[in-house]
Amino acid sequence: MKTSEQENIGGANMARRSFLRYAGLGVASAGLLATAACHKDHKVVVGGGIDIGAKGDLAILNYAYALEQLEAAFYIQVITTPYSGMTSDEKALFTSIRDHEVLHREFFKAALGGNAIPALTVDFSTIDFTKKSAVLGAAKAFEDTGVKAYDGAGYLIQDAGYLTIAGKIVSVEARHAALISNMLVAGSFAADDQVDSNGLNKSATIAEVLPIANTYLKTKVSATNYSYVA
Amino acid sequence: MNLFNIIDEIEKFDPELNDRLNPRRAAIKNITSFGSKVAMAAVPFAMGTMLKRAYGATAAPTVVEVLNYALTLEYLESSFYNQGAASAGLIPAAGASYINTVKDDENQHVAFLKTAITASGGTPVTSPKFDFTAGGGTGNGPFKGLFSNYTLFLKVALAFEDTGVRAYKGQAPNLLGNKDILTAALSIHAVEARHASAIRQLLGVSPWITSTATLGNDTGVSQVNGNYDGEQNVTQGPVNVTTLPSISGSTTSVAIATAAFDEPLSMDQVLALLVGTFIYT
User: Which SUPFAM superfamilies is this protein grouped with (chain A) (predicted)?
Assistant: First the structure.
């Protein structure tokens, strides 16, 4: 037991150390960025949109940050304008999911510091927030896409600490996804639209995910160095 | 016993292994002196542990070791659900489709991992024996009667699923940058989390793990406190996430902070939770 605890602590410290190695780039935030021109690559503005930047962990973290911004904004809207007939149980679940997504967003923002892409402007005009079916359908799309995005980008992460944190988040997104699926169709938490015949969750590339995300964003997100330009 | 052959094989590639394992005989004796409690099935893990110690903090398990570890966990889960599904009168109609979906996924994971291990040049481990009452082979453990008591069955299922999520997460760094194997492992990891969420819904527990500052376990089943220990962590990388803003203020509650991030378990931690109780000789 003692050994396990010590290992746990050691693991956390290791993660923290490797995290700080990168976070060091961002800690000094704007001031440092202004003098370090090369780091501006991480948030190049292209024709009114933004780019996640040069290949590497900062780009992947910004990719995750973009998706979490989108999810957080969606659930904030769900709770701000509840659909007709939302039960108290449903409201409690959506509130929890909103709170998780807001924290994911804030975490990436804090971890990226001055290397973070700006706040994105969302466009949910295609979602009818007054209808339960529309909200659940959109929620399922966001959660399923989020899970596939993290699973598909995991191998691109070079730092073990970051990879572990991505893993900590993706399983929570999968818990959300299963709940939302079951709210739509009972028992569909691992249905074959998301899970393949080997029992593996489907995964998606950055170039597959961002076009979907961009349909809900006014600020278009590109990943030029990962084969996608909005 | 292939263990000695394996060590000999490794020595061919790493002549210093003998020194690293110093004293090698004592290390091996340690494994066998676990005796009846640590199953022979656990020997590959015991070996992994021994090698990790031999190489120090930098030595990670090989891809095949990680996959065989995953395979053992999937044997546990698939056997559990196969036995549950075969227990007449256990699963009510309302839960049947849920349990069957999970059972089928776990059996697919076993088949997939065997294929992946062979494709990676390894040999899939055989299944150890299981005592789902957690009685170490006595059939008389704390979860006795689980195959005739649906709620008890679900509680054990939930411990397995949440622990499985933690176990896969713990191995991700050992597969760093491996496009095929890491992506597959993350994809199984996500499916285990979907299962955990669904089993939690069947039990009427929140779909995510909501810990307090002192207790990771939110299931109310104190026997599995160890399986949830560490879920109460609120520090992610350099950030104590309770200090970050929430929707309602400048800080975030422990409940939200713990629910928003699942925590990993190391191989040693998982095996300590299973071997001698659920897994035996």
Answer: Ferritin-like
By residue range, what is the domain housing residue B104?
Answer: 63-209+264-280
For residue range A146-170, list pLDDT tens digits in order. Answer: 999 999 999 999 999 999 999 999 9
- Assign domain A57-113+128-216 to its CATH architecture: Up-down Bundle (1.20)
Q: In chain B, how many domains are there?
A: 1
Mean pLDDT, chain A, integer: 86
Model confidence at A44, pLDDT cuts 50, 70, 90, reads low
Averaged over successive runs of 10 residues, the pLDDT of chain B (281 residues) comes to 41 45 38 36 45 52 96 98 97 97 98 97 96 97 97 98 98 96 98 98 97 96 96 96 97 98 97 95 79
pTM higher than 0.90: no
User: Of B167, B180, B169, which Cα lies nearest the Cα of B117?
Assistant: B180
Q: Is residue B30 part of a domain?
A: no
Range A66-73 average pLDDT: 98
Helix or strand run (H / E) with residue A46:
strand A45-46
Structure tokens at B46: 């015991």
Q: Do A174 and B190 lie within an 8 Å CB cutoff?
A: yes
A186 to chain B: which residues are within 8 Å by CB? 97
B91 contacts on A by Cβ (under 8 Å):
none
> Measured between alpha carbons, how far is residue B230 from residues B98, B155, B210, B238 in Å?
28, 19, 12, 17
d(CA B101, CA A199): 10
Kindly report the CATH number assigned to the domain that includes residue B163. Answer: 1.20.1260.10
Interface test with A, best of B110, B186, B214, B270 (most A CBs within 10 A): B186
* CA dist., res. B130 & res. B280, Å (int): 6
Distance (Å) from the alpha carbon of A215 to chain B's nearest alpha carbon:
25
Facing residue for A189 by CB, picked from B182, B183, B197: B197
**CB atoms B178 and A16 under 8 Å:** no
Disruptive mutation site among A189, A194, A202 for chain B (greatest number of B CBs within 10 Å): A189
